[in-house]
Give the backbone structure.
Amino acid sequence: MAADHGLPFCALMSWLMTELIGALMVRSWIASGGMRAARQRPSRPDAMSLPVLAGHAGLNLAGLVSWVCFVLSGATALAWLALALMVPAIGLGISTVAIWTPYPGSRTEPDPDSAGGETGVLSRSELVRALADDERSQRLVDNLLRANLTQPPARTPRLILRPLIPLAHGILAIATFLLAMLATVAAI
C-alpha cells in the first residue's frame, strides 16, 4: 500500500503547499483587477490568458485529487494518472512565468512625442526647440537642477520579496514532480 511509504506523503505535502501558494497568487491577481484586465484586453501580450490559467489550475487540481486517491488506495494507476496530469500543468505554468513575474520597470515604452506633463519628460519637438535656443537650453538646465536639488535625499532601496512568491511556487512544483515520480516508481 502506498500509505506505508513516506515518499507519497511527502509528495502530497509538497503538492498541497504548491497549490496553496498558487491559490494565493490567483487571489492577489484577481484582487488587483487581473481578471477584469484579462477580459478587457485579451490581445495584450502582458495580459494573463484566462484559458491558460484555468487549464494550469484545473490540471493541477485534478492531479492532486488523483494523488490523494493513490495515497489512500495504493493503486499505482492513479499515481501515473496524477503524473500525466501534472506534466501539461507544469508546461502551462511555465508559460505564465514571463507574464506573472513582476519586473522593476514599466513594460510599456513612453511615447517619445508625448508632452512631459508631470513626469518631466519632454517631447522630441520640445527638446529640439530647447537645444536650438540658448535661452531655452539654460532654462531647461536650471529647471532640471532645481528639480533635482529640491528633491528629498534618496532612501535606501527596499528589498522586494514579491518575485519570491512565484519562484517558491515553481520550485515547489519541481520538487513535487520529482517526489511524485520517485514515489510512483517506488510503488511498482
In short: The CA atoms of residues 7 and 183 lie 5 Å apart. Confidence is low (pLDDT under 50) at residues 103-119. The radius of gyration is 26 Å.
